[in-house]
């Protein structure tokens, strides 16, 4: 099971900083998860909240990259430099209704991320994920988008059983997924990344109220790699892991706070956990 640091590492922190990323990876985490937004200059910066008291309550989107840096908010470029390919890097695109930088379905943050990763050659040439591929028959064929609209069942060819048998695609149940994954609550954002042909894995992030089965159905039908489900949703469904495995979807849970929950989820067979204290959790897991 992967141990992934939440916002780099909230313990000891400070979250969403190069220090947090480096500390988590040095402590033995398999990777880290970070939040990204745009500055007034159009640069990508790592910060969770759309507005911060340390910014006088003004939106991150209205502050320059230089000012944000002076308040301890790094650019994504800074984070990529310190990460340097060590383990896994999950980049969560923040784009939620009611926030000042929400712009679905234009997805400026997702498109800025695509261009940055492409400019840096990360992770390298990859297939275009919008091409329809074979669908694994089964009870999850009928699916809806997170907006409740029907979607055509489709899988990227790398997600099919034959491709996984030949080493293509991430596949459910694998122990580690090095490289970059892009996640979001905003399904337009991850579909933009999926379609960009970067070879970047994509993950749908779900709120506690969304069912695991609904999330799996969407991930599978839209050709994403993973479902990042809230820990309460996963713990409330005894067969969550078998459902994900049958669908060929990797199941990662957020946010794990205490070691007991980490042990429980490991024993249940989840593929990964996003946790606040990666150093403490790796110790508790005997790693």
Describe this structure in words.
This protein is an alpha/beta fold and 287 residues long. 31% of the residues lie in helices and 17% in strands. The protein is built from eleven helices and nine strands. It has an eight-stranded parallel beta barrel, surrounded by seven helices. Strand 6 (201-205), helix 7 and strand 7 form a beta-alpha-beta unit. Helix 1 packs parallel to helix 3, helix 4 runs parallel beside helix 6 (187-194) and helix 7 (212-222) packs parallel to helix 9. Residues 126-145 and 147-171 have low confidence and may be disordered.
Question: What is the secondary structure topology, with strand pairs?
Answer:
Layout lengths: L1 E4 L12 H9 L4 E8 L5 E3 L18 H6 L5 H8 L4 E6 L14 H12 L41 H5 L13 E6 L2 H8 L6 E5 L6 H11 L3 E5 H5 L4 H8 L2 E7 L2 H10 L3 E4 L2 H7 L3
Parallel strand pairs: 1-2, 1-9, 2-4, 4-5, 5-6, 6-7, 7-8, 8-9
Antiparallel strand pairs: 2-3
Helix pairs in contact: 1-3, 4-6, 7-9
What are the key terms here?
single chain; about 290 residues; alpha/beta; eight-stranded parallel barrel; 9 strands; globular
Compact summary:
The protein is built from eleven helices and nine strands. The protein is an alpha/beta fold and 287 residues long. β8 (250-256), α10 (259-268) and β9 form a beta-alpha-beta unit.
């Amino acid at each position: 099971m992967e141990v992934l640091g939440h916002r780099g590492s909230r313990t000891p922190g400070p979250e969403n900083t190069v220090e947090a990323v480096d500390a988590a990876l040095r402590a033995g985490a398999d990777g880290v998860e970070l939040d990204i937004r745009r500055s007034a200059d159009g640069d990508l910066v790592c910060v969770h909240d759309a507005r911060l008291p340390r910014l006088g309550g003004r939106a991150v989107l209205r502050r320059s990259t230089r000012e944000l840096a002076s308040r301890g908010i790094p650019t994504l470029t800074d984070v990529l430099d310190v990460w340097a390919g060590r383990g896994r890097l999950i980049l969560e695109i923040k784009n939620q209704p009611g926030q000042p930088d929400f712009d679905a379905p234009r997805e400026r943050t997702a498109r800025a991320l695509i261009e940055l990763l492409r400019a840096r050659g990360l992770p390298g040439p990859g297939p275009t994920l919008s091409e329809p591929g074979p669908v694994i028959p089964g009870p999850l064929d009928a699916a809806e988008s997170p907006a409740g609209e029907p979607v055509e069942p489709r899988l990227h060819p790398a997600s099919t059983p034959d491709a996984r048998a030949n080493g293509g695609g991430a596949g459910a149940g694998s122990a580690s997924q090095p490289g970059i994954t892009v996640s979001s609550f905003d399904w337009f954002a991850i579909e933009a990344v999926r379609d960009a042909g970067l070879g970047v894995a994509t993950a749908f992030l779900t709120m506690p109220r969304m069912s695991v089965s609904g999330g799996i159905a969407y991930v599978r039908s839209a050709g994403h790699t993973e479902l990042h489900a809230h820990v309460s949703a996963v713990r409330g469904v005894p067969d969550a892991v078998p459902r994900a495995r049958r669908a060929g979807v990797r199941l990662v849970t957020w946010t794990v706070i205490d070691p007991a929950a980490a042990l429980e989820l490991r024993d249940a067979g989840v593929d990964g956990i996003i946790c606040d204290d990666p150093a403490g959790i790796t110790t508790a897991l005997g790693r």
